[in-house]
Design goal:
Elements lengths: L15 H20 L12 H16 L2 E21 L2 E18 L5 E3 L5 E12 L12 E3 L6 E3 L21 E7 L1
Antiparallel strand pairs: 1-2, 2-3, 2-4, 4-7, 5-6
The protein binds zinc ion.
Zinc ion (ZN) binds next to loops.
Length: 184
């Protein structure tokens, strides 16, 4: 693994502080949307493999009438550990330090079934993935693009959802995807 400070040689517009704050925001939203059964809102920010594994986990719990519920989540900090390149992709590894209450709850009432009612501290190792050779997009005022799922034209200034296939679109300039997230 190489230090993230060297990543700017590959991507001049890469900004560690912006990347960290975006990751912090995405991680918090990932936990709250999955608590609320709205994981599909996060699909643009997750690799297909990671999205599928999270969907399967929550579907298995839902079958038993349960949900992994996260409350009062605060991301205390993000530490970028380094980057690697492999098979045409760039990977950035980050420790996300979290304080939250997390337990297995009833899917309808959100009443706690199993797990701690108190806030716990944890560190999650997050691996982010992007095609090698891509660089951080500058905000360019581009207003139209195509839906990555069905190819239909969409005006990203007007909508965050594709009118044709109904998928939720990533309308910001963050083009990294979470490939895995492991509690340390
Ligand atoms: Zn579409």
């Amino acid at each position: 693994m190489k230090p993230v400070s060297e990543f700017s040689k590959l991507d001049k517009a890469f900004d560690s502080a912006k990347f960290s704050s975006k990751l912090s925001n995405i991680y918090r939203r990932l936990k709250t949307t999955s608590s609320d059964g709205k994981l599909e809102e996060m699909e643009p920010y997750l690799t297909q493999a990671f999205y599928n594994s999270l969907s399967e986990e929550s579907a298995a719990l839902a079958k038993k009438g349960r949900v992994l519920y996260t409350e009062r989540i605060t991301v205390l900090g993000v530490d970028l550990k380094g980057f690697e390149q492999a098979d045409g992709f760039d990977y950035i590894f980050a420790d996300v330090r979290v304080r939250a209450v997390e337990y297995i709850a009833d899917i309808k009432t959100h009443q706690r079934i199993k797990g701690d009612a108190d806030e716990q501290f944890s560190t999650v190792l997050v691996k982010l993935k992007r095609e090698s050779g891509r660089v951080s997009p500058q905000l360019s005022g581009i207003s139209a693009q195509n839906c990555p799922y069905c190819g239909a034209p969409v005006n990203i200034n007007k909508t965050t959802k594709c009118d044709y296939c109904g998928r939720i679109l990533n309308t910001d300039s963050f083009d990294w995807m979470i490939d895995s997230a492991q509690v340390q």
